[in-house]
Write a structure and sequence with these properties.
Blueprint (H helix, E strand, L loop, with lengths): L7 H71 L6 H5 L3 H15 L3 E8 L5 E4 L2 E4 H8 L6 H8 L5 E5 L8 E8 L8 E8 H12 L5 E5 L5 E6 L18 E7 L2 E9 L6 E7 H51 L10 H25 L1 H14 L5 H10 L8 E8 L7 H8 L2 H4 L3 E7 L5 E8 L6 H20 L4 E4 L9 H12 L10 E3 H8 L9 H11 L2 H17 L4 H21 L9 H5 L4 H41 L7 H7 L4 H12 L3 H19 L4 H7 L5 H12 L3 H8 L3
Parallel strand pairs: 15-16
Antiparallel strand pairs: 1-2, 1-6, 2-3, 4-5, 5-6, 7-8, 7-11, 9-10, 10-11, 12-14, 12-15, 13-14
Length: 748
């Protein structure tokens, strides 16, 4: 705790915070961790079991397909005219029969050899390598447990058989398949014998099961092993009764003092079983590994939570500690070691509150000065938001109406009109009625006072109200001081933050006090009407210039500009009027450039504005016009290229939709159908309908050649609902039907 810079007392407070956060964190974390740990471990164990079962089901599917291939080959052999008993016994065609059998063997990667046996030739076997007698056949392959008697008995089978034939010596064992010739015939006239090396079955299982742990066995209907894939040589299954594996699914067995995990899949096609047997230690090794990872992650998260609780406790305490240290350093004489931080802070806040009350009383005595400062800030525009102004007005208890505001400046040549008297005078509401409030401010000019006047509502009638108020003020000053003051009046504003604008206008009005009549009241709007003298500037060419710039028509734009300058030169304008006209033209061009997104073409704005003669300005503006028109023309060309690209992209992405039409395309690009039709023919050299038809035809031909999808599905997938109508159209274009096209062009 000393490292934290805390004394004994503060350590207790921090300790409370940390314990509180730990309690808030630990209880739900522990409960959640138990649930997560249990669900994850159980879920992972089940996922491993299901994964093994799924792999085994996939292996069963592959082996079933291989057996079906052999059954299909047997059917093909039974109907092959080149392999009838007559043909195989023929002196010439017998050689062709051997070649046919060899082609069957070559086309199936599993087969070691294929034999055909006919019941009427009991001592002969026909194979891909030649003719065998039964005795030669047995000497050739040297079976361990398949005798001649057993061979003859098996060759007469009327149902398919499969078994593993063990070979003498170091020869690899064979898996033998016996399929009667004449499917579904109760009296078959022969048998096809397939020899498959046991390693081929092992390879099939390995390709499917991959890195699966344990051993996998294929059992026939008599529970004899006909193939296996072994990854664990320690598993001893001599005493295992495979007949006990009846139900498909996950199970457990005990053998030789060891417990094993099992997964069983039954084949509905031929009654075979596929069994995976794995030592439970090997199985749970993966589960235990994941369990340890989850446990370590939870421990890591708990440590992080513990550190966060400490940091949050310290963070929660830090502002209190700093506040306590601050109050202690400023109230050292009142600090007591017997008090806690919170008690000490409470005492300090109480002292601050008492001090604030005392200070408030002092401020109240200084309110008149503060009021003048606030009103001066309003006149200068130092307060930017009405929220800040309203807050300060409330604090200083200054009342203002919330409608409209204006400023009047009162100037008197008499020393009798003092600011203090003016202040007292203008705060008397009885003069102006209940709808207006006035506040006076000394401007520090000689005999000048600013009046900030607020009225109740901001309406068009406020102009008349304002004039009535000013008239009342002037009459009252005449009566009270026996002088006739000059009053300059600014316009109405609707926000307190705009009062400075009215003040500036009132100051501008006072500049014209020497021109006033006997009324001695100058309104700013009256000055504006005097200044607005028309000087005959011709405006009709403005629209022409704007439109020619937007269209990029350089010739018309330059002609218009020359016409405008020629008109200006014929006018006898003062220098000020001339500059106004010139800047108006500059503004028109700048505004048009902004609206047409070509502002970047105006690169010499300072040179344009700082012109020395009309001719110089005209030359510079001609240069700007040429740049703007060139840019607009370039943008038009870019638009055409982009439109063409977008149309092609739209058709490519939507040509398979049955409702694609020229009208839909025109609607998407906001063009008229007739214009788009002409534009399409001009840009692409063909009409819209023919272009879409070509796209669809190419897609259909590609699908016919590269896929096995139904023809009607292919046609509908590219947007045609009427299959028969399109078939006729296809034949008209290609000269053949889609089906014939597929046969002629199908890739092998």
């Amino acid at each position: 705790m000393k490292l934290l810079g805390l004394n004994k007392f503060k350590s207790r407070l921090l300790f409370k915070y940390i314990v509180s956060y730990l309690a808030i964190f630990s209880v739900p974390f522990i409960l959640m961790s138990l649930v997560i740990y249990h669900n994850f471990v159980i879920g992972f164990q089940e996922s491993i079991e299901q994964s093994n079962l799924k792999n085994l089901q996939q292996a069963e599917s592959v082996t079933r397909d291989r057996v079906k291939e052999l059954q299909s080959m047997t059917t093909d052999i039974s109907y092959n005219h080149g392999l009838t008993p007559y043909m195989v016994n023929h002196r010439y065609y017998g050689m062709e029969a051997i070649d046919i059998l060899n082609s069957y063997r070559v086309n199936n990667s599993l087969l070691k050899e294929v034999f055909v046996y006919y019941h009427d030739n009991k001592e002969k076997l026909y194979s891909s390598s030649g003719l065998y007698s039964i005795d030669v056949f047995l000497r050739q392959y040297q079976f361990e447990n398949w005798t001649k008697k057993k061979v003859m008995e098996d060759l007469g089978t009327i149902t398919p058989k499969v078994f593993r034939a063990e070979m003498k010596g170091e020869k690899e064992n064979m898996v033998v398949f016996l399929n009667p010739i004449g499917p579904n015939n109760p009296y078959p006239f022969g048998t096809v014998i397939y020899f498959i090396k046991e390693s081929k079955f092992t390879d099939v299982l390995e390709n499917v099961l991959g890195n699966s742990k344990g051993n996998t066995y294929i059992l026939d209907t008599n529970n004899r092993v006909i193939g296996s894939y072994k990854n664990d040589s320690k598993i001893n299954l001599k005493d295992v009764e495979f007949s006990a594996f009846k139900d498909e699914g996950i199970g457990r067995i005990k053998n030789d003092g060891n417990e094993y995990f099992t997964a069983t899949v039954n084949s509905e096609y031929n009654g075979w079983k596929l069994i995976t047997i794995m030592n439970t230690n090997q199985f749970f090794k993966q589960v235990n590994h994941k369990r340890m990872i989850v446990f370590l992650v939870l421990i890591f998260l708990f440590l992080i939570g513990f550190l966060i609780a400490i940091l949050l406790g310290k963070s929660q305490y830090t502002p209190i500690g700093k506040l306590f240290e601050f109050t202690k350093s400023h109230d050292q004489d009142k600090y007591s070691h017997n008090k806690g931080e919170l008690e000490s802070i409470r005492d300090s806040i109480t002292n601050v509150y008492e001090s604030h009350k005392s200070l408030s009383r002092t401020i109240y005595l200084q309110k008149p000065f503060a009021k003048d400062q606030l009103l001066i800030k309003l006149l200068k525009g130092n307060l930017s938001t009405d929220q800040d102004i309203d807050y300060l007005l409330r604090e200083l208890n200054i009342k203002m109406q919330d409608g409209a505001y204006f400023v009047a400046i009162v100037h008197s040549n008499s020393n009798e009109f003092l600011v203090e008297e003016g202040y007292n005078l203008f705060t008397e509401v009885s003069i102006l009625g209940n709808d207006a409030i006035v506040h006076g401010v000394d401007l520090l000019y000689e005999n000048a006072t600013a009046l900030i006047i607020s009225v109740d509502k901001y309406t068009n009638n406020n102009v008349d109200v304002r004039r009535n108020i000013i008239q009342k003020i002037q009459d009252y000053i005449k009566l009270s001081t026996q002088t006739i003051p000059v009053i300059g009046v600014g316009s109405l504003v609707h926000k307190k933050s705009y009062i400075n604008r009215s003040f500036i206008e009132a100051l501008s009005s006072m500049d014209y006090k020497v021109t006033t009549s006997d009324e001695n009241i100058i309104y700013y709007e009256d000055i504006e009407s005097l200044l607005e003298q028309p000087f005959g500037y011709v405006q009709e060419e403005n629209g022409k210039l704007v439109h020619s710039l937007k269209q990029g028509d350089q010739k018309v734009a330059e002609e218009t500009l020359r016409s405008m300058f020629a008109e200006i030169k014929t006018k006898k304008l003062s220098i000020y009027e001339l500059k106004c006209v010139c800047f108006d033209i500059i503004n028109i061009i700048l505004k048009t450039a902004s609206e047409s997104n070509t502002s970047e073409e105006i690169k010499n704005l300072n040179e344009i504005v700082d012109f020395n003669s009309l001719d110089e300005l005209e030359r510079n503006l001609h240069s700007v016009i040429r740049s703007i028109c060139g840019k607009v023309e370039s943008m038009k060309n870019s638009y055409q290229e982009k439109l063409q690209s977008n149309i092609l992209d739209f058709i490519t992405n939507h040509y398979s939709e049955y409702d694609l039409s020229l009208e839909k395309l025109a609607h998407n690009f906001q063009l008229s159908t007739s214009y788009l039709s002409r534009y399409f023919k001009e840009q692409f050299g063909t009409n819209f309908k023919r272009y879409v038809l070509n796209l669809r035809m190419e897609k259909i031909k590609k699908e016919l050649v590269e896929t096995d999808k139904l023809i009607k599905e292919i046609i509908r997938d590219v947007g045609y609902q009427d299959v028969s109508n399109f078939t006729r159209q296809f034949r008209k274009i290609e000269g053949i039907t889609p089906g014939r096209y597929r046969k002629l062009n199908k890739k092998l």
